[in-house]
Specification:
The protein is mainly α. It has a single domain, classed as Na+/H+ antiporter like fold, CATH 1.20.1530. The chain has 17 helices and no strands. The N and C termini lie far apart (60 Å).
Length: 409
């Protein structure tokens, strides 16, 4: 008779096999239909989940799911950071900073006010919901912009915003939660100091590890690990996340900065041979594809339709305000003051539409449910609606809109 551990291992292996098979087929369909693969992955997960076929039964709160989400999001962020160019970031950094800080506050406030009037919940609970879904999702946006070649400064601004605003969203969410539960009073000054500390420590941890990794794989004299560059990236991604997290900083920010440093290693005087460079690129591309396959198929399989249905109509109204009013106001307030970037109206219009909700808001909603926070079931329901709506509607129309606005490379 086999032990319980072996039975569980078999179930996990079966689930992984199903995800890989479904992911390969979904990737093929995405390629043929010219739709971003994260959209097809999400829909495949919904079909395979317990609400429909019942082939995937990995719970959102399980350790296995959390490992996949954390490491997968980290690796996708690293891949996104590595694709950015410092010369472009120097041009648009003011907009990125404003979107990742002030922008999250504006999204929280407008969405919270809409939820207060539409859902008829206490104002602080409405604000808590607004904060939960206010940050954009790098695990969704990075793959979309890797597949669809959009004007560099636009795509890199949106990807950078999505990497940097998770810390802001988490800080605002838990600050509002402390007030809602009576565990503390909200302090704007304290929140700003906390955000600054998390950001600086995250950037520092990512920068140090990025430079060290580049030294070991691409330095003319000290690159004794050049042949093991893929393993070094794996070690450094995990090290950057855990190192920053141990310092109470943003692990996702650290991983993203690590990717930027490694992707721009030539700017720091490092060089790799063409063969080693191509081998590392191919490895990173394949690993990132597998990670987003797992993340979005699992995320789709965990959508709770019975919970969603309780707030479907009112939640859809709130998400409409969120997409069509809150985001445009946020983009114009944050982009117009940046005289250096000189954003065109078509570029700002594109950024108004592109702000998918995904892994980070879903994780925050899950944490609130686990803590039994006030209104957590309503927040989880609206978050599911936001995830499905933004990824399916905005994700599938990204290339079409970019083409209409003349932003395709």
């Amino acid at each position: 008779m086999e032990s319980a551990a072996i039975e569980i291992s078999k179930q996990v292996l079966l689930s992984f096999g199903i995800i890989l098979a479904a992911g390969a087929l979904s990737g093929f369909l995405a390629q043929k239909s010219k739709v971003p693969d994260v959209v097809i992955f999400l829909m495949a997960g919904v079909l395979l989940g317990p609400e429909m076929a019942g082939l995937l039964q990995i719970k959102a709160e399980s350790a296995l799911n959390q490992i996949v989400l954390v490491f997968g999001a980290c690796y996708i962020l690293f891949d996104g950071g590595a694709s950015l160019r410092l010369r472009v970031l120097r041009e648009v950094w003011i907009t990125i900073v404003l979107l990742a800080t002030l922008g999250v506050l504006i999204m929280t406030a407008i969405t919270g006010i809409a939820a207060f009037y539409v859902l008829k919940v206490p104002f602080l609970v409405a604000l808590l919901m607004g904060a939960t879904i206010a940050s954009t999702d790098p695990a969704t946006l990075v793959p979309i912009f890797k597949q669809i070649k959009i004007r560099d400064r636009v795509s890199q601004t949106v990807m950078s915003e999505s990497a940097f605003n998770d810390a802001t969203g988490a800080i605002i969410t838990f600050s509002v939660l402390a007030v809602v539960t009576g565990a503390g009073d909200f302090s704007f000054q304290g929140a700003v100091i906390n955000l600054f500390q998390q950001s600086m420590l995250g950037i520092l941890a990512g920068g140090i590890l990025g430079y060290l990794a580049a030294l070991l794989i691409a330095h003319e004299k000290y690159a004794f690990l050049a042949e093991y560059a893929p393993v070094v990236t794996l070690m450094a991604v995990i090290g950057a996340y855990l190192g920053a997290d141990g310092l109470h900083a943003s692990g996702f920010m650290a991983v993203f900065v690590f990717g930027i440093i490694l992707g721009n290693k030539e700017s720091f005087g490092f060089r790799m041979t063409e063969k080693e460079h191509n081998r590392l690129d191919e490895y990173v591309m394949t690993t990132a594809f597998i990670m987003r396959m797992f993340i979005f198929i699992l995320l789709g399989s965990q959508v709770d339709f019975s919970l969603m249905n309780r707030y479907l109509a009112s939640g859809a109204v709130v998400i409409s305000v969120f997409m069509l009013l809150a985001r445009p106001i946020t983009v114009f307030i944050c982009a117009i003051p940046d005289r250096r970037a000189r954003w065109s109206f078509s570029e700002m219009l594109f950024m108004c539409w592109t702000r998918e909700t995904g892994v980070i808001p879903a994780a925050l909603a899950g944490l609130l449910m686990g803590m039994n926070a006030p209104g957590s079931r309503m927040i989880a329901s609206v978050t599911f609606i936001a995830v499905l709506t933004t990824i399916i509607i905005q994700g599938t129309t990204t290339e079409w809109l970019a083409n209409k606005l003349g932003l395709l490379e």
